[in-house]
Amino acid sequence: MAARKKIREAINVLFTYKEQDRFDLFAAFPSVKNFFLNRRNLFYIRSLGDISFTAIILMGLFGPQDASRNISLFLAWGIWWTGVVLSWFIVGKFWCGICPFPGIGRLLQKMNLSLNLEPSPFVRKYSLHFSVFLFAAIIWSESVTNMKNWPMGTSFLLLSILLGATILGAIYKGQAWCRHLCPLGKIIGAAATISMIELRPDHGKCKTCKTFSCKKGSDDAPGCPVYLGAFNIRNNVDCLMCGRCVSLCDKDSPSLRLRNPFVELILNKGRYITCSYIIPFLMGSQLARFVQHAAWYRRAETALFDSNTITFTFLLALGFGLFILIQKAGATLFGITEDPSFGKFSPMVPVLVPLAFTGELVYRLDYFLANAGDLIPTFGRQFGINLEGLYVSVPRPVIYWICLLSLSMGTASSAYVLHIFNTRDFEGVIEKKRYYALHGLVLLLFTTYAVLFGNYIAS
Ligand code: SF4
Ligand code: SF4
Ligand code: SF4
Question: Residue 141: which domain range?
Fold first, then answer.
């Protein structure tokens, strides 16, 4: 009976938009809290991650370079990255809590082999631009090198992230790479703003705190790896959800909570600078990626020196520019971009976020569903065992409809954000015809995505 009540409460919080309503998962399910309190749990998961990533990297570097005979590709792009993308919507940045990339840097710090410096003002000031640039470089190189079919390239990509995290771990204290530079962390953080889970402190308890051990650590345990501490968490962008502060705090302040997935998005109204860059780039890159197999893309390629690199780079830049314009045009149409109580904001960012991240999800899901049935036969080919009989094919129409359904949910979410703006935060402020025009813009974007993705999947 009590369990049913808890589930009812949780569902209520999840599906009703109330800014302040939260469902405390630690209070309702103590086993969830125990999971974070027992640091060994995360250690075991991380160790599993270390072993898996080492295997992927080694297979990519030294295994067959024929995509149909190397499972490292599907493990990296199909299982790992699709899994991370899917996890954004549910557990937010939880991947960062178990990510193996900062492992060697942490080890160097434990062995006193790190300079242990504070991140410089230069790093703090320019890191966002650099990490967006790195993210752009990943998307660009993934497409122009056809990395999903290039095992060694995939290993190089993973090694470059590992190298970045290790070098910064050897220079700076904590996980400076994760806080300031990691391109994956930035996109996961931006996506986590629509997650249904958050880790937050009880500010009442933190007010009387004298130790701030969640940030500083204790004699036998280091503090927050990204220099936040639970009392500083205001959003899902920077916190890694590693749960270290849960075990460090002696006042039982941090808790994991379920929430309506729109509350953070709507509350912040596009004021995170990370999202203002990431969203137009992500959407622009999706358009460029979806048209890569179109007949006219081939013609454009012929016209542009027969170079996929030049054509894709051109389209990527065009897509980015187009979505910057859409973001600005949408804000103009919205009619208000400054509020006396919270200053300047960017209203189109929260409207576009759900569509942008479901766009990414369908791109990844397509790869996962199209290749999942070939995993076992690929394993057989790689290790000389005949497993061809175990091949399973997912029909393309099934993939298309699953992806279209996901895109429709993203579009409905974008429309819902507009609805909340119009009925709550900016009630009576947005002119009716402008409000409908904004819905028209969202619908136009959905149609564009659906058509381009339909062509992409059919090619
Ligand atoms: S920020 Fe990057 S390196 Fe750090 S934990 Fe997240 S994905 Fe891993
Ligand atoms: S989370 Fe705990 S340790 Fe951190 S400031 Fe609050 S009460 Fe203090
Ligand atoms: S605030 Fe807590 S959960 Fe977030 S990164 Fe810091 S220690 Fe980890």
Answer: 2-264
Helix and strand numbers (H, E) in the chain are 23, 7
Statement to judge: residues 129 and 205 lie in one domain: yes
pLDDT band at 1 (very low <50, low <70, confident <90, very high): low
Ligand 3 centre distance from Cα of residue 238 (Å): 9
Angstrom distance (rounded) from CA 405 to CA 430? 30
Check pocket membership of 99 for ligand 1, CB cut-off 6 A.
yes
Is the pTM for the entire model greater than 0.70?
yes
Residue 331 CA to residue 75 CA, distance in Å, equals: 40
34 and 170 housed in the same domain: yes
Ligand with the closest atom to the CA of 240: 3
Is the CB–ligand 2 distance for residue 209 below 6 Å?
Answer: yes
Distance 124 CA to ligand 3 centre (A): 18
Q: What tens digit of pLDDT does each residue of 213-260 get?
A: 999 999 989 999 999 999 999 999 999 999 999 999 999 999 999 999
Is the same domain home to 283 and 426? yes
Q: State whether the beta carbon of 286 lies less than 6 angstroms from ligand 2.
A: no
Q: Which ligand is nearest to the Cα of residue 239, counting in written order?
A: 3
- For the stretch 164-188, pLDDT in tens is 999 999 999 999 999 999 999 999 9
The ligand 2 atom at the shortest distance from the C-alpha of residue 245 is 1
Structural domain total, the chain: 2
Contacts of 63 (CB under 8 A, 6+ apart): 69, 70, 72, 151, 382
User: Would you state the pLDDT for residue 132?
Assistant: 87
Mind listing the pLDDT tens digit for each residue in 355-373? 999 999 999 999 999 999 9
162 lines ligand 1 (CB under 6 A): no
Determine the distance separating the centroid of ligand 3 and the alpha carbon of 233, expressed in angstroms. 8
Phi-psi region of 155 (alpha: psi -120 to 50; beta: other; left: phi over 0): alpha
CA distance readout (Å), 120 to 117, 167, 445 = 8, 15, 41
215 Cα–ligand 1 center, Å: 19
The pLDDT tens digits of the residues spanning 72-98 come to 999 999 999 999 999 999 999 999 999
CA 1 to centroid of chain Cα atoms: 37
Query: Of 229, 244, 264, which closes a domain?
Result: 264
Q: Indicate whether 273 and 211 sit together in one domain.
A: no
Average pLDDT, the chain: 93
Q: Which of 232, 264, 296 is the last residue of a domain?
A: 264
Residue 404 CB-density burial (10 A; 0-12 exposed, 13-18 middle, 19+ buried):
middle
